[in-house]
Design a protein that fits this description.
394 residues, phosphoric diester hydrolase activity, two-stranded antiparallel sheet, 14 strands, 25% helix, single chain, ten-stranded mixed beta sheet, 11 helices, signal, PI-PLC_domain, alpha/beta
């Protein structure tokens, strides 16, 4: 049966969206002298480490996949995560002594969230009778490696969730807090418990998570995981390795063609957990090298996809997330979400895909997944998308 004819209004919207998509893509990598020369979601920068010394337009804004393909289980999407989200270059010392440590990010947690980051990796320690975000020296937080009291950053998360009632944020805690109920106290002080996703409803044995729609409806919009197994029983905070798979972090996680699992994690191809974190950052962060490193994410993503048994990463963790020589980690996230959610090579194309066809700007129509049906809203109509196995995934 032939598909029903499209109305003139739908055709007009399709045409406009396609033009916007092409126009947006054309600006990435275009020459610029300032941010005013670049479109929305772009800034003007360079990447000498990759041999690009002339300024060009670079992406700094993620597309939220749930804004385009709605209502799927949480574990069907890929989200951008900042590694050591609190370790911000230029952040003044709060302890009265000069900080001597390394840095992983360049802007505030609030800006990270506004730019589309949906996962935060936070290292928490006891310091000065409080819980602080801190780098360690031999497993210990000192006043010269500390950044801010954890409650201050958690209040930024609370403000974002309050201002954006349909967004979901995940926090991964590298947990060195030993004070009784220390984590619970700071989450309570930040007024975040009203968004808490309870352990009792977290799926086990690799089962699907609830849909993002259900999570938002219940206001279960904050997922928190700890690296300390004891906190699950004592404070009701989910033990990370019961719910999450991870590849190796640091330098072993950025070796081309390789994707070993982290020693605490079960094998990446295990189906006993339904969330997969792909770590992609060097052991020692170097700001000026990050643009080159982040532009190589796709190659590692392919290796991790294979190592995980043709499974996409739900979380992609990086340093200096805005640094690249073009589309960077944002383009890779778009590509993963597009292939997974509608069979196109970018999530933006899912919004204008009609009757099984990706727009010409997304030529990888053959990249579809077999025997899976997803629902996506395109111009207000619910359509069913049948997909077949990818010939060249990612």
């Amino acid at each position: 049966m032939a598909p029903p004819p499209l109305s003139s209004s739908v055709l007009l919207l399709f045409h406009i969206a396609l033009l916007l998509l092409v126009h947006y893509s054309a600006q990435v990598g275009g020459s610029c002298s300032s941010a005013r020369d670049c479109g929305t979601g772009l800034y003007c920068g360079s990447c000498p480490a990759a041999g690009r010394t002339n300024p060009s337009c670079i992406r700094n804004l993620a597309i939220q996949p749930t804004s385009i393909v709605k209502g799927l289980p949480f574990n069907r999407y890929s989200w951008l995560v900042t590694h050591n989200s609190f370790s911000i270059l230029g952040e003044p010392s709060r302890t009265g002594v000069e900080r001597v440590t390394f840095y992983n990010q360049e802007d505030s947690v609030t800006n990270q969230l506004r730019n589309g980051v949906r996962g935060l990796m936070l290292d928490m320690y006891d310091l000065n009778d409080d819980v602080w975000l801190c780098h360690s020296l031999q497993g210990q937080c000192y006043n010269f490696t500390a950044f801010v009291p954890a409650v201050e950053t958690l209040k930024e998360v609370e403000a974002f969730l309050s201002e954006n009632p349909s967004e979901i944020v995940t926090i991964f805690i590298e947990d060195y807090v030993r004070s009784p109920m220390g984590l619970s106290n700071v989450f309570n002080a930040a007024d975040l418990m009203k968004y808490w996703y309870p352990i009792s409803e977290m799926p086990t044995n690799g089962k699907d998570w609830p849909s993002v729609t259900d999570m938002v409806a219940k206001n279960h919009r904050l997922l928190v995981f700890t690296s300390d197994a004891s906190k699950e029983a004592s404070e009701g905070i989910a033990y990370q390795w019961s719910y999450l798979l991870e590849n190796e972090s640091g330098d072993p996680g950025i070796v081309p063609g390789s994707c070993p699992n982290r020693k605490e994690s079960r094998p990446l191809n295990s189906r006993s957990a339904s969330l997969f974190m792909q770590n992609y950052f060097p052991t020692m962060p170097v700001q000026n090298e990050a643009c080159k490193e982040n532009s190589g994410l796709l190659q590692i993503a392919r290796a991790c996809y294979a190592a995980a048994g043709n499974r996409i990463p739900n979380f992609i963790a990086v340093n200096f997330y805005m640094r690249s020589n073009g589309g960077g980690v944002f383009d890779v996230q778009d590509r993963i979400n597009g292939l997974t959610l509608c069979g196109c090579n970018t999530i933006a194309a899912c919004q204008i895909r009609v009757f099984h066809q990706c727009p010409h700007s997304s030529p990888m129509n053959v990249c579809r997944l077999r025997h899976q049906w997803v629902h996506a809203r395109t111009w207000g109509h619910l359509i069913r998308l049948h997909r077949h196995p990818p010939l060249n995934p990612l």
